[in-house]
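Practice problem: predict the structure.
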Amino acid sequence: MPSKSPALNNGTTRRYSYWAAARLVSEPALVRREQVAEFAQAVINPAKENVAEKCRELTSGDGVDVVFDCAGVPVGLEAGFDAVRNSGLYIMVAVWELTLPCWQFLAKHITIKGVLIFTTEDFEEVMQWMAEGKLAGYEKMVTGRIGVDDIVEKGFEELVNNKDKHIKILVSPQNAVAA
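Answer:
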């Protein structure tokens, strides 16, 4: 019997994961682990725990139905392929050049799906959920606000250099940003 438990590799949620019976999240950054702990059944620190073993433990040995790979790193791919159940779904969200572990992919009958761009309908649906209070807590993901002129130093560089401090930094097209 399927586990009905998607693993969210590095904290990303989408429609399927939001309504899933159980959400298991693998996340190396402390601030993100703390943030997703509010909605996840379990939050796994991949630096300290074996992600696949923990996922199987939490799904009675089955493995998860769906993996969302938002990390785009080989170790995440390996852990995700190991954690997904036979005939499971592996969704690539991260953009990166990957080397597919072909034997494991074929032996487990894994389906891979890529997603890159959200549709207008996706944004409208999420905005509706926010208005209806179905996404309570989303505002905690915003860890900074900057003007467009600061996007390199206070945006990109800040996210790269301070991963344990930030989740999302909002950029305003106007340079005056309210605190």
